[in-house]
Every structure is written in C-alpha cells, then in structure tokens.
Amino acid sequence: MNEGERQSAGTLLDVRDLRVSYAGRGRGRRGGRAAVDGVSLTVTAEETLGLVGESGSGKTTVARCVAGLLSPGAGTVTFEGRPLGRAGRRPPELQRAVQMVFQDPRSSLNPRMTVAAIIAEVWGTHPVTAPRGDRTAALHRLLAGMGLDPEVASRRAGDLSGGQCQRVSIARALAVRPRLLVCDEAVSALDVSVQAQILRLLADLRGRHRLAMLFISHDLGVVHQIADRVAVMSRGVIVEEGRTDEVLTAPRHPYTRALLDAALDLDDTVRDDDTVRDDGTVRDDDRARGDGRVRGDGTVRGDCTVRDDGTVPRDGMLPGDGTVWGDGTVRGDGTADGEVAV
Ligand SMILES: Nc1ncnc2c1ncn2[C@@H]1O[C@H](COP(=O)(O)OP(=O)(O)O)[C@@H](O)[C@H]1O
Ligand SMILES: [Mg+2]
After folding, report:
1. CB-based pocket (< 6 A), ligand 1
2. What Rg value do the Cα atoms of the chain yield, rounded?
3. Most C-beta atoms within 10 A of its C-beta, which of 8, 115, 172, 335?
4. Which ligand is nearest to the CA of 66?
5. What's the 88 CA to ligand 1 centre distance in angstroms?
C-alpha cells in the first residue's frame, strides 16, 4: 500500500522505522542488536492488529513507544498524521486517544485506591471526558459495561481478583474514550477461563466503542481469536505480516512456522467447551490448534478435568498439574483409567 492508499484506508497509527536500544545492552548498528531494530506498522480505524513473537522479541518496547512511555532512538510514531511524541509532551487529545492495558492487572493499579477513585483520577486528567451529570450513575454504567457490579466502585483495587482488576484497567482506559487501545499481554497473566472472558469483553468493547487495537501477545492462539491482521516479530524486526487467517494457516516465514509448531506443542490447554475424544483428539473445537490434536504424544495438559464421558466441565481442575497421559480417561472422582500424572 502506498501512502495515499493508507491514508484513504483511515490509518490511525503509523509507526515508521522504529529503533530502540537499551543502555548497556545492544548498541544498535555498531555492536549488539537493538531491542527494536527498524519496525514499521500501521493500524487503521477500528482494526485490531495482533503483534506476536517470542519473549524478548521487542513487542513491549514497541508498545511503550506507541503509548509514549519510552522515546524511540529513531523513527516516527504518528496518529492520524500527527507525531505522537512522548506521553508527557503529547497534546491532551492525543494522550487520551491512545490508552494502554498492561499484562499484570495487579501492579498496574494502585492497590490502596478504590475503583471509584481510580476512575475519578482519569476523568480529572481529561476533564473533557468527565460525565456532565450524575457521576456515580456514570461510573456504575461504565463498570456495568465491563461486566462489573456497582458495588465494585467502593472496593480497593488490592481486594479484587485478577480478572476484576483487569476489567477495572480496561474501564480506566475506556473512561477517557480512546481511539486506540494498546493491549500488552493483557490476558497472559490470567487463568485460562478468565482469559477467555476478558478476550470476549475486549472483542465486544471494540465493536461497541469502535476501537482500534494493537493487541500484543506471545500466544498465537489468543491473537488468532481477536486480530484482523497479524505482524510477527522476531529479534527486533517484523518478519511477516498479513491477514490473521492467512498468516496462521499458510505462514511464509520459517520463524512463523516455528512459532506455530511451538504453539501446537505447548499451548495445548483444553478450553472449557472442548470435548476430548478417547484417542486424545479434541472434538468440536474452534480453538485447539492445527489438526485438533492436543499433543503429538496424546497427552492433555491444562487446568481441566476430563469427565468419564470424555467431556471437560467449565471450571474443573485435575489434581496435581492436570496432566492426563496416554489415552487415560479421568473419572469425576479423580480416579483414572490409564496413566495419570498427579
Ligand atoms: N528496560 C530495559 N533495559 C534493558 N534491556 C531491556 C529493557 N526492556 C527490555 N529489554 C530488552 O529488550 C529486548 C526486548 O524486550 P521486550 O520489548 O520486553 O520484548 P517482549 O515484550 O517481546 O518480550 C529484550 O532482549 C529485553 O531483555
Ligand atoms: Mg513483553
């Protein structure tokens, strides 16, 4: 796409040739590798771009530059054609246009503050977004939109569950009506069942608030569920980019293929609505990877109970690490046919 075409497609975020070297680590072109070594990407209005890559590939560094928490060594970050610059120096309307949700829901909220105070703070920072009328009612509406009870408003962040904290983080981001949400491993620290709920919430909010997203994850399965396009990052550069379905079903770059293979090997969690057959394959699954086989060696891993009819209940847990070996079937009482590692 040339520049004219990109603009007419409604480009919101345009990252060009971004370079970041951390002191004491890579020395850019001279010596060691830069953490981010010439990344370019765009996100158009209402689009979700997934950014995937193994740990250390530079994803968070890109996110921090986009969110204005870090100044790039070189390159530009523009929003609707305007340079974003560092957060502290951004014009307020650009500051609020780009909001971020972090990986660790607990450490991204002050545990001593009530949820009401957390939201009041961002409304104070961006008064143009503060509700005109009844603030309490507006706060309750905001929380309800995140699937939170009104009573959560008076609770301290430190007293909430990880899932609730992440909903509050998302509420805080959306309270100022952003155009672009940067989610950096926003579901990675959560239990699998909570992860699915937060993903559904994000997908729902994206439609309701006409949000664009830069959705960052090391987990291809998660990105697959939410991203329209995906960019694959390795060692500070983007090695492949395209429509999510195309990249994940017909990867062109060897690194993407390796990432997919690794996901098949490692990300073999059985989701709550999947059914495991006797032969170890997963039936009726839109989430299991590849051919639907849980693992090559027939093992099932993850926080799930396999019932004796072969189905997996919603919040069930297996004893121990939840591994079922071979073609073992686990009964409701936790006993098993076959070999079960506990
Ligand atoms: N504050 C920092 N100081 C020095 N090196 C860093 C810092 N943050 C990240 N790095 C290094 O930069 C590289 C990219 O890190 P990061 O952007 O966090 O990757 P990712 O989010 O993909 O795991 C890694 O090698 C990491 O060790
Ligand atoms: Mg990271």
Report:
1. 22, 25, 35, 53, 55-61
2. 22
3. 115
4. 1
5. 22
Structure tokens at 325: 């070996």
Q: Which ligand is nearest to the CA of 188?
A: 2
Ligand 1 atom nearest to 236, measured from its CA: 14
Distance 57 CA to ligand 1 centre (A): 8
pTM of the full structure: 0.76
Structure tokens at 211: 């949000």
At the top level of CATH, which class does the domain 3-252 belong to? alpha beta
Please list the pLDDT of the chain residue by residue as tens digits (342 residues): 544 554 456 899 999 999 999 986 544 444 557 999 999 999 999 999 999 999 999 999 999 999 998 989 999 999 999 998 776 788 889 999 999 999 988 888 999 999 999 999 999 999 999 999 999 999 999 999 999 999 999 999 999 999 999 999 999 999 999 999 999 999 999 988 899 999 999 999 999 999 999 999 999 989 999 999 999 999 999 999 999 999 999 999 999 998 888 776 544 444 444 455 554 444 433 333 333 333 333 334 343 444 444 444 433 333 333 334 333 444 444 444 444 433
Q: How far apart are CA 223 and CA 250, in angstroms?
A: 16
Domain boundaries, the chain: 3-252, 268-342
β pairing state of 98-101 and 48-52: unpaired
CA–CA distance, 234 with 286 (Å, rounded to integer): 27
Nearest CA to ligand 1 atom 3: 22
Question: Taking a C-beta distance cutoff of 8 angstroms, is the pair 101, 186 a contact?
Answer: yes
Encoded amino acid at 326, one letter: G
How far is residue 169 from each of residues 103, 129, 137, measured CA to CA in Å? 10, 17, 19
Closest CA to 72 of 51, 52, 82, 58: 58
